[in-house]
Amino acid sequence: MSVNELKLSKTISYALRHHPEEFNLQLDEEGWCFIDDLLNALQTVNQLQDVTLSDLKKMIAHSEKKRFELKKDKIRAYYGHSFDVKVKYNEKKPPDFLYHGTARRFLDSIKRQGLIAKQRQYVHLSSDRHTAYLVGKRHDDYPIILKINAKEAFDDGIVFYDANDTTWLCEALPKQYIDNL
Ligand code: HQG
What we know:
Elements: H1 5-18, E1 33-34, H2 35-42, H3 53-62, E2 68-71, E3 74-77, E4 90-91, E5 97-102, H4 107-113, E6 123-126, H5 129-137, E7 144-149, H6 150-155, E8 161-164, E9 167-170
Helix pairs in contact: 1-3
The structure holds ligand HQG.
Ligand HQG binds near residues 65, 109 and 167.
């Protein structure tokens, strides 16, 4: 039977980014754990009991975003962690504009504080409006797309990292760089 790749991706994201202890997983300081341990842990998860290494590799290959990294017998989430993890990202000059999709209910607070990482390690920004819309849609049926003046922020010394084709990270984004607030 074919594997439910969405469920697999979401379950592993949850385990490797947020709650490894719920799966009895030990992550090292760079966020890696043994693939065998992860596959064992999945045996207790409905619909994922029989997932193999080959299923895991297929899911990663089919994914539209680079969320996971494999190295020899280990795996880690590449970004999105809510705990402290040492992942080395490339510092990079961003495009002139980036986007951030968010919920209407967060706007007042963003107007006061700018964008903050909240429970994650970084603020996540998107390279295009459509991706930002999809990110925002996770929080609100009618998300707001903020336009970020990334060039100006970069020129003022804010450090940006590119996590994958569509995802950029920064520690925090002060409100003056949000174009349409
Ligand atoms: C909001 C997914 C109040 C922020 C996506 C967001 C992304 C504030 C929410 C990745 C705020 C945090 C991350 C402030 C920011 N006051 N609210 N000052 N500053 N917020 O889920 O960016 O597909 O932690 O706007 O694609 O939504 O799973 O972050 O709405 O790349 O790989 O606080 O997760 O990645 O929500 O999404 P999240 P996010 P995957």
